[in-house]
Amino acid sequence: MIMEARAVTKVFGATHALKGVDFAVEAGRVTALFGENGAGKSTLMKILAGIEQPTTGELELDGEPIAFGSPRAAADRGVVIIHQELSLFPNLSVADNLFMARERVRHGVMVDDRAQRDTAAALLQRLEEPIDPRTDVSELRLGQQQIVEIARALAQDARVLIMDEPTSALSAAEVEVLFRIIRELTADGVAIVYISHHLEEALEIADHVVVLRDGGLVAEAEAADVNLAWIVEHMVGRSQDELFPEDHAETGAELLRIRDLSVADPRNPGRLSVDGVSLTVRAGEIVGLYGLMGAGRTELLEALAGRLRVVSGEIDIDGDMIEGPVSARIARGLALVPEDRQRDGLVQSMSVGQNLSLSGLRRFIRGPLVSADKERTAVTTMMRDVTVKASGPDAPITSLSGGNQQKVVLGKALLTQPRVLLLDEPTRGIDVGAKADIFTLMTDLAGRGVAVLFATSELDEALHVPDRLLVMAKGKVVREVRRGTSSREEIMVASEGGER
Description:
32% of the residues lie in helices and 28% in strands. It has 17 helices and 24 strands.
Protein backbone atom coordinates (compact mmCIF):
# COMPACT_ATOMS: atom_id res chain seq x y z
CA MET A 1 0.00 0.00 0.00
CA ILE A 2 1.51 3.33 -1.05
CA MET A 3 -1.19 5.84 -0.11
CA GLU A 4 -4.32 5.70 1.97
CA ALA A 5 -7.16 8.04 2.94
CA ARG A 6 -8.85 7.25 6.24
CA ALA A 7 -12.38 8.44 7.13
CA VAL A 8 -11.99 11.53 4.94
CA THR A 9 -14.81 14.07 4.91
CA LYS A 10 -15.03 17.35 3.01
CA VAL A 11 -17.65 20.02 3.61
CA PHE A 12 -18.25 23.05 1.37
CA GLY A 13 -20.77 25.22 3.19
CA ALA A 14 -23.95 23.16 3.36
CA THR A 15 -22.63 20.57 0.90
CA HIS A 16 -21.03 17.35 2.19
CA ALA A 17 -18.87 16.37 -0.79
CA LEU A 18 -17.25 13.42 1.04
CA LYS A 19 -18.65 11.44 3.97
CA GLY A 20 -16.08 9.37 5.83
CA VAL A 21 -14.40 7.79 2.80
CA ASP A 22 -11.67 5.15 3.15
CA PHE A 23 -9.60 4.80 -0.02
CA ALA A 24 -6.26 3.11 -0.72
CA VAL A 25 -3.95 2.63 -3.70
CA GLU A 26 -1.35 -0.09 -4.16
CA ALA A 27 1.99 -0.15 -5.94
CA GLY A 28 1.85 -1.57 -9.46
CA ARG A 29 -1.95 -1.61 -9.69
CA VAL A 30 -4.63 0.47 -11.38
CA THR A 31 -7.57 1.48 -9.20
CA ALA A 32 -10.55 2.65 -11.27
CA LEU A 33 -12.77 5.15 -9.44
CA PHE A 34 -16.37 5.37 -10.63
CA GLY A 35 -19.24 7.66 -9.70
CA GLU A 36 -21.67 10.20 -11.08
CA ASN A 37 -20.73 13.86 -11.38
CA GLY A 38 -20.99 15.26 -7.88
CA ALA A 39 -20.35 11.86 -6.27
CA GLY A 40 -17.08 13.16 -4.78
CA LYS A 41 -14.47 11.61 -7.09
CA SER A 42 -12.68 14.82 -8.06
CA THR A 43 -12.86 16.16 -4.50
CA LEU A 44 -11.21 13.01 -3.14
CA MET A 45 -8.49 13.18 -5.79
CA LYS A 46 -7.86 16.88 -5.07
CA ILE A 47 -7.34 15.97 -1.41
CA LEU A 48 -4.86 13.23 -2.34
CA ALA A 49 -3.01 15.69 -4.60
CA GLY A 50 -2.81 18.54 -2.06
CA ILE A 51 -5.24 20.85 -3.89
CA GLU A 52 -7.87 20.62 -1.14
CA GLN A 53 -7.55 19.86 2.56
CA PRO A 54 -9.89 17.35 4.24
CA THR A 55 -12.39 18.71 6.76
CA THR A 56 -11.77 15.61 8.89
CA GLY A 57 -9.81 12.41 8.39
CA GLU A 58 -6.19 11.84 7.48
CA LEU A 59 -3.87 10.72 4.70
CA GLU A 60 -1.01 8.25 4.94
CA LEU A 61 1.93 7.86 2.57
CA ASP A 62 4.12 4.78 3.01
CA GLY A 63 2.30 4.10 6.29
CA GLU A 64 3.07 7.53 7.81
CA PRO A 65 0.57 10.40 8.32
CA ILE A 66 1.01 13.15 5.76
CA ALA A 67 -0.53 16.57 5.13
CA PHE A 68 0.12 18.24 1.79
CA GLY A 69 -0.15 22.01 1.93
CA SER A 70 -0.10 22.41 -1.84
CA PRO A 71 -0.01 20.46 -5.13
CA ARG A 72 3.72 21.22 -5.33
CA ALA A 73 4.27 19.57 -1.95
CA ALA A 74 2.35 16.50 -3.13
CA ALA A 75 4.28 16.34 -6.40
CA ASP A 76 7.57 16.59 -4.49
CA ARG A 77 6.51 13.41 -2.65
CA GLY A 78 5.53 11.69 -5.91
CA VAL A 79 1.75 12.28 -5.97
CA VAL A 80 0.80 13.79 -9.35
CA ILE A 81 -2.61 14.51 -10.88
CA ILE A 82 -3.79 14.87 -14.48
CA HIS A 83 -6.87 17.07 -14.24
CA GLN A 84 -10.15 16.45 -16.06
CA GLU A 85 -10.12 19.99 -17.46
CA LEU A 86 -6.93 21.03 -19.22
CA SER A 87 -4.67 23.37 -17.24
CA LEU A 88 -2.24 24.41 -19.97
CA PHE A 89 -0.96 27.83 -20.99
CA PRO A 90 -2.13 28.25 -24.61
CA ASN A 91 0.32 31.08 -25.39
CA LEU A 92 3.36 29.03 -24.35
CA SER A 93 5.14 26.21 -26.15
CA VAL A 94 4.65 22.52 -25.42
CA ALA A 95 8.09 22.33 -23.77
CA ASP A 96 7.40 25.39 -21.60
CA ASN A 97 4.12 23.85 -20.43
CA LEU A 98 5.79 20.54 -19.56
CA PHE A 99 8.29 22.23 -17.26
CA MET A 100 6.27 25.15 -15.91
CA ALA A 101 7.41 25.85 -12.31
CA ARG A 102 9.90 22.96 -12.63
CA GLU A 103 12.28 24.44 -15.19
CA ARG A 104 15.57 22.77 -16.00
CA VAL A 105 18.32 25.29 -15.29
CA ARG A 106 22.01 25.75 -16.07
CA HIS A 107 24.41 27.38 -13.65
CA GLY A 108 21.53 27.79 -11.21
CA VAL A 109 19.90 30.70 -13.03
CA MET A 110 19.47 30.12 -16.79
CA VAL A 111 16.63 28.01 -18.17
CA ASP A 112 18.08 25.16 -20.23
CA ASP A 113 15.72 25.37 -23.21
CA ARG A 114 17.56 22.69 -25.19
CA ALA A 115 17.38 20.15 -22.36
CA GLN A 116 13.68 20.88 -21.89
CA ARG A 117 12.96 20.49 -25.61
CA ASP A 118 14.94 17.23 -25.79
CA THR A 119 13.13 15.76 -22.79
CA ALA A 120 9.76 16.95 -24.15
CA ALA A 121 10.51 15.37 -27.54
CA ALA A 122 11.38 12.06 -25.86
CA LEU A 123 8.15 12.08 -23.83
CA LEU A 124 6.04 12.88 -26.90
CA GLN A 125 7.81 10.14 -28.85
CA ARG A 126 6.98 7.71 -26.03
CA LEU A 127 3.35 8.77 -26.39
CA GLU A 128 3.61 8.35 -30.19
CA GLU A 129 2.51 11.95 -30.81
CA PRO A 130 4.68 13.77 -33.39
CA ILE A 131 4.43 17.28 -31.94
CA ASP A 132 7.28 19.80 -32.18
CA PRO A 133 8.05 20.84 -28.56
CA ARG A 134 8.40 24.44 -29.77
CA THR A 135 4.78 24.56 -30.97
CA ASP A 136 2.40 26.81 -29.02
CA VAL A 137 -0.31 24.80 -27.25
CA SER A 138 -2.99 27.03 -28.82
CA GLU A 139 -2.12 25.53 -32.22
CA LEU A 140 -2.89 21.97 -31.10
CA ARG A 141 -6.22 20.18 -31.41
CA LEU A 142 -7.94 19.18 -28.18
CA GLY A 143 -6.70 15.57 -28.24
CA GLN A 144 -3.09 16.72 -28.68
CA GLN A 145 -3.47 19.11 -25.77
CA GLN A 146 -4.62 16.19 -23.64
CA ILE A 147 -1.50 14.27 -24.70
CA VAL A 148 0.62 17.25 -23.55
CA GLU A 149 -1.17 17.19 -20.19
CA ILE A 150 -0.31 13.49 -19.84
CA ALA A 151 3.30 14.10 -20.88
CA ARG A 152 3.62 16.79 -18.20
CA ALA A 153 2.57 14.29 -15.55
CA LEU A 154 5.00 11.67 -16.87
CA ALA A 155 7.83 14.21 -16.62
CA GLN A 156 7.38 14.35 -12.84
CA ASP A 157 8.36 10.73 -12.05
CA ALA A 158 5.21 9.99 -10.06
CA ARG A 159 4.83 7.19 -7.52
CA VAL A 160 1.06 7.79 -7.36
CA LEU A 161 -0.42 9.03 -10.65
CA ILE A 162 -4.03 10.23 -10.62
CA MET A 163 -5.69 10.33 -14.06
CA ASP A 164 -9.00 12.23 -14.06
CA GLU A 165 -10.69 11.62 -17.44
CA PRO A 166 -7.38 11.29 -19.33
CA THR A 167 -8.99 9.96 -22.54
CA SER A 168 -12.01 12.27 -22.92
CA ALA A 169 -10.55 13.88 -26.07
CA LEU A 170 -8.32 11.04 -27.32
CA SER A 171 -8.81 8.88 -30.40
CA ALA A 172 -8.98 5.10 -30.10
CA ALA A 173 -5.36 4.81 -31.26
CA GLU A 174 -4.22 7.38 -28.68
CA VAL A 175 -6.08 5.47 -25.93
CA GLU A 176 -4.18 2.31 -26.88
CA VAL A 177 -0.88 4.18 -26.53
CA LEU A 178 -1.93 5.56 -23.13
CA PHE A 179 -2.85 2.06 -21.93
CA ARG A 180 0.58 0.81 -22.99
CA ILE A 181 2.18 3.61 -20.95
CA ILE A 182 -0.01 2.76 -17.94
CA ARG A 183 1.09 -0.87 -18.09
CA GLU A 184 4.73 0.20 -18.28
CA LEU A 185 4.26 2.46 -15.26
CA THR A 186 2.55 -0.21 -13.15
CA ALA A 187 5.29 -2.67 -14.11
CA ASP A 188 7.71 -0.15 -12.55
CA GLY A 189 5.64 -0.06 -9.34
CA VAL A 190 3.66 3.14 -9.93
CA ALA A 191 0.18 3.22 -8.39
CA ILE A 192 -2.47 4.55 -10.81
CA VAL A 193 -5.86 6.01 -9.92
CA TYR A 194 -7.97 6.04 -13.07
CA ILE A 195 -11.21 8.03 -13.34
CA SER A 196 -13.26 7.75 -16.52
CA HIS A 197 -16.85 7.93 -17.64
CA HIS A 198 -15.94 5.47 -20.39
CA LEU A 199 -16.83 2.53 -18.17
CA GLU A 200 -15.86 -0.29 -20.52
CA GLU A 201 -12.50 1.35 -21.22
CA ALA A 202 -11.75 1.87 -17.52
CA LEU A 203 -12.72 -1.70 -16.67
CA GLU A 204 -10.28 -2.94 -19.33
CA ILE A 205 -7.27 -1.27 -17.70
CA ALA A 206 -8.28 -1.63 -14.02
CA ASP A 207 -7.08 -4.13 -11.43
CA HIS A 208 -9.41 -2.89 -8.67
CA VAL A 209 -12.63 -0.83 -8.85
CA VAL A 210 -14.19 1.54 -6.32
CA VAL A 211 -17.62 3.22 -6.64
CA LEU A 212 -18.63 6.47 -4.94
CA ARG A 213 -22.20 7.75 -4.67
CA ASP A 214 -23.40 10.91 -2.92
CA GLY A 215 -20.02 11.39 -1.23
CA GLY A 216 -19.72 7.88 0.19
CA LEU A 217 -17.97 4.68 -0.85
CA VAL A 218 -20.75 2.26 -1.80
CA ALA A 219 -18.87 -0.66 -3.40
CA GLU A 220 -15.43 -1.99 -4.29
CA ALA A 221 -14.19 -5.20 -5.88
CA GLU A 222 -11.51 -6.73 -8.03
CA ALA A 223 -12.02 -5.71 -11.67
CA ALA A 224 -12.04 -9.31 -12.83
CA ASP A 225 -15.07 -10.03 -10.63
CA VAL A 226 -17.44 -7.31 -11.94
CA ASN A 227 -19.03 -6.14 -15.20
CA LEU A 228 -20.54 -2.95 -16.61
CA ALA A 229 -24.00 -3.70 -15.25
CA TRP A 230 -22.58 -4.02 -11.71
CA ILE A 231 -20.80 -0.67 -12.02
CA VAL A 232 -23.81 1.21 -13.44
CA GLU A 233 -26.23 -0.14 -10.85
CA HIS A 234 -23.96 0.87 -7.98
CA MET A 235 -23.29 4.29 -9.54
CA VAL A 236 -26.83 5.38 -10.34
CA GLY A 237 -29.11 2.82 -8.75
CA ARG A 238 -30.63 1.68 -12.06
CA SER A 239 -29.74 -0.67 -14.88
CA GLN A 240 -27.77 0.29 -17.97
CA ASP A 241 -30.78 -0.47 -20.22
CA GLU A 242 -32.69 2.44 -18.66
CA LEU A 243 -30.14 5.10 -19.66
CA PHE A 244 -31.20 5.58 -23.28
CA PRO A 245 -34.57 7.15 -24.17
CA GLU A 246 -37.30 4.82 -25.45
CA ASP A 247 -39.82 7.43 -26.65
CA HIS A 248 -39.10 9.45 -29.77
CA ALA A 249 -41.13 12.34 -31.17
CA GLU A 250 -43.07 12.42 -34.40
CA THR A 251 -41.12 14.33 -37.02
CA GLY A 252 -42.57 17.36 -38.75
CA ALA A 253 -41.55 19.70 -41.53
CA GLU A 254 -37.98 20.06 -42.69
CA LEU A 255 -36.20 22.76 -40.65
CA LEU A 256 -32.52 22.46 -41.60
CA ARG A 257 -31.15 21.67 -45.06
CA ILE A 258 -27.47 21.61 -46.04
CA ARG A 259 -26.52 21.43 -49.73
CA ASP A 260 -23.03 20.41 -50.93
CA LEU A 261 -21.30 22.10 -47.98
CA SER A 262 -17.50 22.31 -48.04
CA VAL A 263 -15.38 23.76 -45.24
CA ALA A 264 -11.62 24.31 -45.21
CA ASP A 265 -9.50 22.78 -42.47
CA PRO A 266 -8.85 25.72 -40.09
CA ARG A 267 -5.30 24.46 -39.46
CA ASN A 268 -4.54 23.59 -43.08
CA PRO A 269 -6.63 25.72 -45.47
CA GLY A 270 -5.29 23.77 -48.43
CA ARG A 271 -7.47 20.75 -47.57
CA LEU A 272 -11.17 20.33 -46.84
CA SER A 273 -12.43 19.21 -43.43
CA VAL A 274 -15.97 18.97 -44.83
CA ASP A 275 -16.24 17.87 -48.45
CA GLY A 276 -19.59 18.29 -50.21
CA VAL A 277 -21.90 17.26 -47.35
CA SER A 278 -25.68 17.36 -47.83
CA LEU A 279 -28.22 16.52 -45.13
CA THR A 280 -31.60 17.47 -43.69
CA VAL A 281 -33.06 17.59 -40.18
CA ARG A 282 -36.80 17.81 -39.54
CA ALA A 283 -38.68 19.36 -36.64
CA GLY A 284 -38.83 16.83 -33.82
CA GLU A 285 -36.01 14.74 -35.29
CA ILE A 286 -32.71 13.81 -33.65
CA VAL A 287 -29.97 13.21 -36.21
CA GLY A 288 -26.57 11.88 -35.11
CA LEU A 289 -23.14 12.41 -36.66
CA TYR A 290 -20.63 9.64 -35.95
CA GLY A 291 -17.03 9.49 -37.09
CA LEU A 292 -13.45 9.01 -35.98
CA MET A 293 -11.07 11.85 -35.10
CA GLY A 294 -10.66 14.09 -38.14
CA ALA A 295 -13.88 12.95 -39.84
CA GLY A 296 -15.13 16.55 -40.02
CA ARG A 297 -17.98 16.45 -37.49
CA THR A 298 -16.85 19.45 -35.42
CA GLU A 299 -15.96 21.52 -38.48
CA LEU A 300 -19.42 20.84 -39.96
CA LEU A 301 -21.23 21.99 -36.83
CA GLU A 302 -19.00 25.04 -36.36
CA ALA A 303 -19.56 26.07 -39.99
CA LEU A 304 -23.33 25.80 -39.46
CA ALA A 305 -23.04 28.01 -36.36
CA GLY A 306 -20.93 30.62 -38.18
CA ARG A 307 -17.61 29.95 -36.46
CA LEU A 308 -15.88 28.62 -39.60
CA ARG A 309 -16.02 30.02 -43.11
CA VAL A 310 -17.91 28.01 -45.72
CA VAL A 311 -15.97 27.42 -48.93
CA SER A 312 -19.05 26.43 -50.91
CA GLY A 313 -22.58 25.18 -50.45
CA GLU A 314 -25.76 26.45 -48.80
CA ILE A 315 -27.37 26.30 -45.36
CA ASP A 316 -31.15 26.77 -45.20
CA ILE A 317 -33.57 27.12 -42.29
CA ASP A 318 -37.24 26.90 -43.31
CA GLY A 319 -36.13 27.20 -46.94
CA ASP A 320 -34.31 30.52 -46.40
CA MET A 321 -30.54 30.62 -46.79
CA ILE A 322 -28.66 31.74 -43.68
CA GLU A 323 -25.24 33.34 -43.51
CA GLY A 324 -23.46 36.02 -41.52
CA PRO A 325 -21.96 35.99 -38.01
CA VAL A 326 -22.81 33.77 -35.05
CA SER A 327 -25.19 36.37 -33.56
CA ALA A 328 -27.24 36.52 -36.76
CA ARG A 329 -27.63 32.73 -36.77
CA ILE A 330 -28.65 32.68 -33.11
CA ALA A 331 -31.32 35.25 -34.01
CA ARG A 332 -32.53 32.86 -36.74
CA GLY A 333 -32.90 30.06 -34.18
CA LEU A 334 -29.60 28.19 -34.61
CA ALA A 335 -27.54 27.43 -31.48
CA LEU A 336 -24.36 25.40 -30.92
CA VAL A 337 -23.19 23.59 -27.78
CA PRO A 338 -19.41 23.35 -28.45
CA GLU A 339 -17.19 20.35 -27.82
CA ASP A 340 -14.75 22.14 -25.48
CA ARG A 341 -16.92 23.56 -22.71
CA GLN A 342 -14.01 25.19 -20.89
CA ARG A 343 -12.54 27.06 -23.83
CA ASP A 344 -15.62 27.77 -25.94
CA GLY A 345 -18.66 27.28 -23.74
CA LEU A 346 -18.02 29.01 -20.42
CA VAL A 347 -16.58 32.23 -19.03
CA GLN A 348 -14.65 31.07 -15.97
CA SER A 349 -14.85 34.41 -14.12
CA MET A 350 -18.65 34.52 -14.32
CA SER A 351 -21.30 32.91 -12.15
CA VAL A 352 -23.59 30.08 -13.18
CA GLY A 353 -26.42 32.53 -13.89
CA GLN A 354 -24.26 34.93 -15.90
CA ASN A 355 -23.01 32.07 -18.06
CA LEU A 356 -26.54 30.79 -18.63
CA SER A 357 -27.96 34.12 -19.80
CA LEU A 358 -24.96 35.27 -21.83
CA SER A 359 -26.12 34.17 -25.30
CA GLY A 360 -29.78 35.08 -24.72
CA LEU A 361 -29.40 38.52 -23.17
CA ARG A 362 -31.38 40.16 -25.99
CA ARG A 363 -34.51 38.52 -24.50
CA PHE A 364 -34.15 40.54 -21.29
CA ILE A 365 -33.24 43.96 -22.70
CA ARG A 366 -35.77 46.71 -21.98
CA GLY A 367 -34.63 49.94 -23.58
CA PRO A 368 -30.98 50.53 -22.68
CA LEU A 369 -31.03 48.17 -19.68
CA VAL A 370 -31.21 44.47 -18.91
CA SER A 371 -34.23 43.49 -16.82
CA ALA A 372 -32.53 41.76 -13.88
CA ASP A 373 -35.78 40.24 -12.60
CA LYS A 374 -36.70 38.66 -15.95
CA GLU A 375 -33.14 37.42 -16.41
CA ARG A 376 -32.99 35.81 -12.96
CA THR A 377 -36.40 34.18 -13.39
CA ALA A 378 -35.37 32.69 -16.73
CA VAL A 379 -32.03 31.51 -15.33
CA THR A 380 -33.63 29.88 -12.27
CA THR A 381 -36.19 28.12 -14.45
CA MET A 382 -33.49 26.88 -16.83
CA MET A 383 -31.36 25.55 -13.94
CA ARG A 384 -34.37 23.50 -12.87
CA ASP A 385 -35.19 22.33 -16.40
CA VAL A 386 -31.68 21.08 -17.18
CA THR A 387 -31.17 19.86 -13.56
CA VAL A 388 -28.07 21.90 -12.72
CA LYS A 389 -26.87 21.03 -9.22
CA ALA A 390 -25.58 24.30 -7.73
CA SER A 391 -26.25 26.42 -4.65
CA GLY A 392 -27.90 29.03 -6.89
CA PRO A 393 -27.42 31.33 -9.90
CA ASP A 394 -24.69 33.26 -8.08
CA ALA A 395 -22.48 30.19 -7.54
CA PRO A 396 -19.10 30.39 -9.34
CA ILE A 397 -19.10 28.28 -12.50
CA THR A 398 -15.80 26.75 -11.35
CA SER A 399 -17.52 25.26 -8.29
CA LEU A 400 -19.60 22.88 -10.44
CA SER A 401 -18.72 19.35 -11.48
CA GLY A 402 -17.98 18.65 -15.14
CA GLY A 403 -21.45 17.25 -15.80
CA ASN A 404 -23.17 20.26 -14.26
CA GLN A 405 -20.94 22.64 -16.20
CA GLN A 406 -22.02 20.82 -19.37
CA LYS A 407 -25.66 21.31 -18.40
CA VAL A 408 -24.98 25.05 -17.99
CA VAL A 409 -23.52 25.20 -21.53
CA LEU A 410 -26.60 23.36 -22.81
CA GLY A 411 -28.92 25.64 -20.82
CA LYS A 412 -27.16 28.71 -22.24
CA ALA A 413 -27.96 27.52 -25.76
CA LEU A 414 -31.58 26.75 -24.81
CA LEU A 415 -32.11 30.27 -23.42
CA THR A 416 -31.67 31.56 -26.98
CA GLN A 417 -34.88 29.62 -27.78
CA PRO A 418 -33.37 27.63 -30.67
CA ARG A 419 -35.34 25.92 -33.40
CA VAL A 420 -32.25 24.01 -34.54
CA LEU A 421 -29.90 22.79 -31.80
CA LEU A 422 -26.36 21.67 -32.66
CA LEU A 423 -24.58 19.53 -30.04
CA ASP A 424 -20.89 18.67 -30.42
CA GLU A 425 -19.98 15.75 -28.12
CA PRO A 426 -22.55 16.85 -25.50
CA THR A 427 -21.66 13.97 -23.14
CA ARG A 428 -17.84 14.26 -23.28
CA GLY A 429 -16.33 13.75 -19.84
CA ILE A 430 -19.57 13.28 -17.90
CA ASP A 431 -20.99 10.31 -16.05
CA VAL A 432 -23.70 7.89 -17.12
CA GLY A 433 -26.35 9.55 -14.95
CA ALA A 434 -25.69 13.01 -16.41
CA LYS A 435 -25.62 11.46 -19.89
CA ALA A 436 -29.07 10.00 -19.31
CA ASP A 437 -30.32 13.44 -18.21
CA ILE A 438 -28.99 15.00 -21.43
CA PHE A 439 -30.51 12.26 -23.62
CA THR A 440 -33.87 12.81 -21.91
CA LEU A 441 -33.58 16.55 -22.46
CA MET A 442 -32.76 16.02 -26.15
CA THR A 443 -35.85 13.81 -26.50
CA ASP A 444 -38.02 16.41 -24.72
CA LEU A 445 -36.73 19.17 -27.03
CA ALA A 446 -37.51 17.05 -30.07
CA GLY A 447 -41.00 16.54 -28.66
CA ARG A 448 -41.42 20.33 -28.67
CA GLY A 449 -40.50 20.50 -32.34
CA VAL A 450 -36.80 21.38 -32.08
CA ALA A 451 -34.51 19.89 -34.74
CA VAL A 452 -31.47 18.31 -33.06
CA LEU A 453 -28.18 17.54 -34.83
CA PHE A 454 -25.52 16.08 -32.55
CA ALA A 455 -22.03 14.68 -33.00
CA THR A 456 -20.72 11.80 -30.94
CA SER A 457 -17.73 9.48 -30.86
CA GLU A 458 -19.55 7.03 -28.57
CA LEU A 459 -20.86 4.01 -30.48
CA ASP A 460 -23.58 3.20 -27.94
CA GLU A 461 -24.91 6.76 -28.17
CA ALA A 462 -24.75 6.66 -31.96
CA LEU A 463 -26.75 3.43 -32.10
CA HIS A 464 -29.40 4.19 -29.45
CA VAL A 465 -30.10 7.95 -29.33
CA PRO A 466 -30.66 9.42 -32.83
CA ASP A 467 -33.59 8.67 -35.13
CA ARG A 468 -31.13 8.69 -38.02
CA LEU A 469 -27.36 8.32 -37.89
CA LEU A 470 -25.00 9.80 -40.48
CA VAL A 471 -21.54 8.23 -40.49
CA MET A 472 -18.72 10.55 -41.58
CA ALA A 473 -15.25 9.68 -42.88
CA LYS A 474 -12.68 12.06 -44.34
CA GLY A 475 -15.12 14.95 -44.52
CA LYS A 476 -17.92 13.06 -46.28
CA VAL A 477 -21.13 11.38 -45.18
CA VAL A 478 -20.48 7.76 -46.15
CA ARG A 479 -23.52 6.02 -44.66
CA GLU A 480 -26.99 6.80 -43.31
CA VAL A 481 -28.86 4.37 -41.04
CA ARG A 482 -32.04 4.45 -38.99
CA ARG A 483 -32.04 3.48 -35.34
CA GLY A 484 -32.02 -0.27 -34.81
CA THR A 485 -31.02 -1.21 -38.36
CA SER A 486 -27.23 -1.47 -38.08
CA SER A 487 -24.60 -3.15 -35.91
CA ARG A 488 -21.56 -1.74 -34.14
CA GLU A 489 -19.27 -3.51 -36.57
CA GLU A 490 -21.01 -2.03 -39.64
CA ILE A 491 -20.80 1.48 -38.21
CA MET A 492 -17.11 1.07 -37.37
CA VAL A 493 -16.27 -0.22 -40.85
CA ALA A 494 -18.12 2.71 -42.43
CA SER A 495 -16.36 5.25 -40.16
CA GLU A 496 -13.01 3.95 -41.34
CA GLY A 497 -13.97 4.54 -44.96
CA GLY A 498 -14.89 0.91 -45.66
CA GLU A 499 -17.63 -0.47 -47.86
CA ARG A 500 -21.26 0.26 -47.05
